[in-house]
Design brief:
The complex is a heterotrimer of chains A (about 675), B (about 190) and C (about 280). By secondary structure, chain A is of the alpha/beta class. Chain A contains 18 helices and 34 strands. With about 190 residues, chain B is mainly alpha-helical. The chains are: A alpha/beta (about 675), B mainly alpha (about 190), C alpha/beta (about 280). At the B-C interface, α7, α8, α9, α10 and α11 of B face α1, α3, α4, α10 and α11 of C.
Chain lengths: ~675, ~190, ~280
């Protein structure tokens, strides 16, 4: 005999504004099998939960229906409360009176009637609920960090320092990411590589971190605590164990004119190359697309000069399988090349460059050794113009969002220019100045007040070249839109920050959500910024949205803590809402006929074959068996099964049928 | 007629702009790219981005200034502002609407006298013949503006080159043209 | 091969040489350009500046006439007329209520089926494929191709070439044997309809155009719009006054330049009608 308790929540005014909660509770109290029915303002609060617990104890309730918000909100809360009162948590169900009723309808009788219906069908369902126990699965205490920029480096170090193992993979030949390309960082004007490279070395030397560069994720299977990842280690054409990083090969390689990716096309590199001198690992890779040997079958100079014989032309990509418990994605971002702005002449005029290219010019390890020089003729620009929002905040041609870091790096670039070119004149065309971080506003004021950078509020309509100068046609909107024309020697465009190429494919491999701009989606924009909706996969850094270094580092540490928290348990509990193939007494053993349609239907490969044997070891029949560790409770197999032999615990055929009939019988 | 005007909370002239042209003045974030690229902005009293700002305020005295501005008449509708605007705001379409309204309310800027006169003379010419009669246009224009001597030397030069027709070209369906003019003028009185 | 032909008012009067050169080039390729019967003025700048309904009704009548005459395509050499006709077709196609309200005034029926081609589109479709073999007198000069405003803007409606640094005229001139130069004023406005009412502004705007063409060594400026031609050619005095020097660079219509390359007679192409002597 069921003794069900019904608890109707007002949710402040969220439900009671359109639903007559008292009436719902009163009506429910009259149903067969309901021993207790009450309404209350905030069921999820402490007193609300106490209400449930005392009712369970005093009335000996065998089931609980909480009619309130969505189970995605508070199902764990109420199930825990029931468990504390001694009732199996899976005897507790929630009727969603908020998202499914009060929030989507106007106040009225019909709305209250619908609420009553929702409660009734769940009361009927709970009568068929069974006690279920959580499933325990082991946890593999190794983390995979994808991406070796500052966020990936920080996350790896933090996780490794808690004593757990980390596999860090990076698709480029070296770790370091965009931060290694910067000359100085705002607001401190620290030399970027000086603060980064110690961390890079720490990663390479840490006993708990295994670093694979020139490697990408090939595929991922499994679930939280129990992932299986395949990693493609692209062929570097080098035997890393033999290579000492002496650099003979890169010095002697005859193919010297390939535009350097690290220098954003402003410098050149060889076909066998190390991207930059401080690279970790400091071992070269061969760029097969440009290497003479791979194109024509000739040369092999590197092999000849290598003192340890480390060149391996025949080396192939290797696929490695690893078992991991958690993943941190730190794949970062890239910039949107501004050639879709033909009016600015990027790509047409050599002296119109991007912010990242300016970083390489300003960097002491860059193509001009830190001197600001025009790419066209190598002269030092006497007048330089910086354009903000060249791609961001631009629904017509670019993207509508703000890329966050540009206002700060423009101020930084202008300051660096003024420091390096005494007597030079710099101009910034801006729409707004977004300097919200710690010390950021003061930094921008320094640029304007101390370094004499001319800030002009307005955008530039077009740039064209005349007699070796770049004519910039802008406007000063703070002076009645007065036209401002500047004959500049160099123009720097603040480009938009966008998701990396291949972000969409990676998200699909990992089964995580992403937004329309291909940035990875956080689980909740306010309260869960480092988690994704896929359990066990976390985010760090600019792969989620454009952000600066302090935020990326903070996020990386946050993700690391989530991973460490996950690894602090030896077992993970999983909800028992999984499929089960029925078993019956001999001689039937099971209504399953062994057609195994479910095996091919299951998206998680969670169903196996099981042989039922008699005492003599003879096989009586083969039936399907669900692996409770892999099953995700999607129900596809249930739909496929022709003999109705497979069912989901907590959502059985019986329970579902009862709900539907409870709804229809009223009418 | 866009129903947005009813709900968007934009009132006054900005609301009328939305209703007649689908241009929403709140889209403008005052970047000034339009004014930067406008070939005539230095001759305007209010460059286009300033006109947008004046409409954004909903301030009746600023709205009046817009209708009385010289800007709207010297604007060439060259479409450069629209081509470059990051918010794709159809400024030329808005300018056409402001011009029509400015005329209907008799608020055309006195400095724009010649420009308005030229347009009126042009339309007067085609109203009667269906096609432009250049000599008729010039005569009408000079009558309106009293700029008798301007371009006087041009006429013989054009004639010498065969560019000036003495006799106007009359189309057959002149009554059809007159009907079109009548109907569109009636709409304007509303 | 017969196409509908909408000359517009200026091709009949102050820009007669444009019509002459268009017809000459068409004839050389056996294309018959048949004028739309009883066509009216499209309203040009004056109509859309003063009265929206009028600015749509006048071009609508032209399109209805073309439809009634059975033309699938019409050629509109004047860029302003091309712009008005295309914009009208677009607006009426977008809004059925507006279409009904505008076209019932002309009592002619309107379905929007006629294709409107500007001069470059017509040349690219019907002349360019056969041009290479017919060039007898390559136009061996450095030319600055001037597109003006209304051929390429607004792109969403015209869908022709591109708004920044367009290339269609340059490609045509290349085929005619010329060397098109890269310059900075391809699409900057010449001063348009202010020619009479504010000639000084035209002097400034057109002056900047001629000035840049000259600085970059252009020997001729090529245009595809009678308004632009008028401002750059007929108003040369105002330009010279603005620049403070006398510039002799001639301005040719695209069809005149192609006509010369084809070896057509200079008088047939109307070159003698220009204000600035055509020395090329």
């Amino acid at each position: 005999m069921s003794k069900i308790g019904v608890f109707v929540c007002h949710c402040g005014e969220n439900i009671s504004a359109t639903v007559d909660c008292a009436k719902v509770a009163e009506t429910a109290g009259k149903y067969d099998g309901v021993a207790f029915s009450v309404d209350y303002k905030y069921m999820c609060s402490d007193p609300g939960q106490s209400l449930i617990k005392s009712a369970i104890k005093e009335k000996g309730l065998t089931g609980v229906v909480v009619a309130s918000c969505s189970p995605r909100m508070h199902e764990p809360t109420f199930r825990k409360a029931c468990a504390e009162a001694g009732l199996n948590p899976f005897m507790c169900e929630m009727a969603n009176l908020r998202e499914h009723c009060s929030w989507v309808h106007e106040k009225g009788e019909a709305t209250t009637e619908k609420a009553i219906d929702l409660v009734r069908i769940l009361v009927e369902k709970v009568k068929y609920n069974h006690s279920l126990n959580e499933i325990k699965v082991p946890v593999t205490k190794t983390a995979l960090v994808i991406g070796g920029g500052i966020a990936g480096i920080q996350a790896s170090l933090d996780i490794a320092n808690t004593g757990h193992k980390v596999i860090l993979i990076e698709k480029d030949p070296s770790i370091g990411g965009h931060m290694s390309q910067l000359s100085e960082t705002f607001p401190t004007l620290d030399c970027s590589q000086c603060i980064l490279t110690p961390r890079m070395v720490e990663v390479a030397q840490h006993p708990n971190i295994t670093l694979y560069t020139y490697a990408e994720l090939e595929s991922l299977e499994g679930f939280i605590g129990n992932f299986k990842a395949k990693i493609r280690r692209k062929s570097k054409s080098i035997d890393e164990k033999l290579c000492t990083g002496c650099g003979q090969c890169t010095t002697k390689c005859p193919v010297k004119k390939i535009p350097s990716e690290f220098n954003e096309g402003l410098g050149k590199r060889t076909a066998i190359y190390v991207p930059f001198p401080q690279a970790v690992p400091n071992k070269p890779v061969i760029d097969r697309k440009n290497c003479t040997y791979y194109i024509k079958g000739k040369c092999k100079v590197c092999e000849i000069v290598c003192p340890t014989g480390a060149i391996r032309f025949d080396q192939e990509d290797q696929i490695m399988e690893v078992e991991i418990g958690a993943i941190v994605i730190a794949t970062g971002f890239t910039i949107k090349q501004p050639d879709f702005f033909p009016e600015y002449g990027y790509g047409k005029y050599a002296d119109v460059i991007t912010g990242l290219q300016f970083e390489r010019l300003a960097s002491a390890s860059g193509p001009t050794l830190g001197e600001i020089r025009r790419p066209s003729d190598g002269k030092v620009p006497e007048k330089i113009v910086f354009l903000a929002c060249a791609g961001s905040r631009d629904p017509a041609k670019g993207i509508p969002y703000c890329s966050k870091i540009c206002c700060m790096y423009i101020a930084k670039h202008a300051m660096l220019y003024q420091h390096k070119v005494h007597g030079g004149k710099s101009y910034v065309f801006y729409m707004d100045i977004r300097a919200g971080g710690k010390q950021y506003e003061e930094f921008v004021r320094r640029a304007i007040e101390d370094d004499g950078v001319n800030y002009i509020r307005g955008r530039v309509s077009r740039i064209y070249e005349k007699n070796g100068k770049l004519i910039v046609n802008g406007v000063d909107t703070l002076l009645n839109a007065m036209p401002v024309e500047i004959e500049a020697d160099m123009v720097v465009l603040a480009t938009a920050g966008v998701a990396n190429e291949g972000a969409e494919e990676l998200a699909q491999k990992l089964h995580i959500s992403y937004d329309p701009y291909k940035f990875f989606a956080e689980a909740h924009p306010k309260l869960k910024p480092v988690e994704t909706n896929t359990a066990g996969i976390f985010l760090a850094g600019a792969c989620q949205a454009p952000r600066d270094i302090p935020e990326s580092v903070a996020m990386a540490s946050g993700a690391a803590v989530k991973v460490a928290g996950l690894f602090s348990q030896d077992e993970l509990t999983r909800e028992p809402i999984i499929a089960v193939v029925n078993r019956q007494a001999p001689p039937v053993y099971s209504s399953c006929v062994g057609c195994f349609l479910c095996v091919s239907a299951c998206p998680y490969q969670a169903i196996e074959k099981e042989e039922i044997k008699n005492r003599n070891g003879e096989v009586i029949k083969s039936v399907a068996k669900v692996n409770p560790g892999l099953c995700q409770g999607c129900g596809t197999c249930v739909a496929f099964c022709r003999t109705k032999s497979i069912d989901i615990q907590g959502y059985t055929h019986e329970q579902m049928y009862t709900e539907v009939m409870a709804l229809l019988n009223e009418y | 007629m866009s129903s947005d005007a009813h709900h968007s909370g934009i009132s006054g002239l900005g609301g009328e702009v939305l209703e007649h042209t689908d241009v929403k003045v709140s889209h403008c974030y005052q970047c000034g790219k339009c004014s930067a690229g406008c070939p005539l902005s230095e001759e305007m009293d209010y460059p286009p981005s300033v006109i947008m700002r004046m409409l954004q305020t909903g301030n009746p005295s600023l709205e009046d200034k817009v209708l009385r501005s010289f800007s709207i008449w010297v604007c060439l509708t060259c479409e450069m502002c629209f081509a470059r605007c990051p918010m794709s705001i159809d400024i030329p379409k808005m300018m056409d609407f402001l011009r029509e309204k400015s005329l209907n309310e008799k608020k055309a800027n006195p400095k724009a006298k010649e420009i308005v006169a030229f347009h009126k003379s042009f339309l007067d010419s085609i109203k009667y013949t269906g096609r432009l009669y250049e000599i008729g246009l010039f005569v009408d224009y000079k009558t309106r503006t009293l700029k008798i001597l301007d371009d006087l030397a041009l006429a013989p030069k054009m004639m010498k080159r065969g560019k000036l027709n003495i006799i106007p070209e009359l189309i057959k369906d002149r009554s059809g043209i007159a009907a079109i003019f009548r109907k569109s003028n009636k709409k304007n009185k509303n | 091969m017969t196409l509908g032909f909408y000359p517009g008012c200026s091709l009949k009067g102050s820009s007669r040489e444009y019509a002459e050169s268009v017809l000459a080039v068409a004839k050389a390729f056996d294309i018959i350009l048949e004028e739309i019967e009883d066509w009216n003025c499209c309203g040009a700048t004056a109509a859309h500046n003063m009265n929206k309904e009028l600015s749509l009704a006048l071009p609508a009548r032209i399109l209805s006439l073309a439809e009634r005459q059975g033309f699938k395509e019409i050629v509109v050499p004047c860029a302003a007329c091309y712009s008005r006709l295309t914009v009208t077709k677009h607006e009426l196609g977008k809004d059925p209520a507006l279409k009904a309200s505008v076209t019932d005034a002309n009592g002619l029926g309107y379905s929007g089926s006629v294709s409107v081609l500007n001069i470059v589109q017509m040349l690219d479709k019907y002349v360019t494929p056969n041009l290479a073999g017919r060039v007898v007198n390559p136009f061996d000069h450095k030319v600055a191709c001037y597109y003006g405003c209304l051929l390429v803007r607004p792109h969403e409606i015209l869908k022709f070439d591109r708004e920044e640094d367009p290339q269609s005229l340059d490609a045509l001139m290349l085929k005619a044997g010329a060397t098109p130069i890269d310059w900075a004023f391809k699409t900057e406005c010449c001063g348009a309809g202010l020619s009479v009412s504010r000639t000084n502004s035209v002097g400034r705007l057109s002056g900047k155009i001629i000035g840049d063409a000259k600085d970059r060594g252009a020997e001729a400026v090529i245009v595809a719009c009678p308004m632009c031609h008028s401002n750059l050619d007929m108003r040369r005095d105002a330009i010279n006054s603005y620049l403070g020097e006398k510039i002799d660079i001639p301005v040719l219509y695209i069809t005149q330049a192609i006509g010369l390359a084809l070896g057509l007679d200079r008088k047939t192409l109307g070159l003698q009608r220009h204000f600035v002597k055509v020395s090329v």
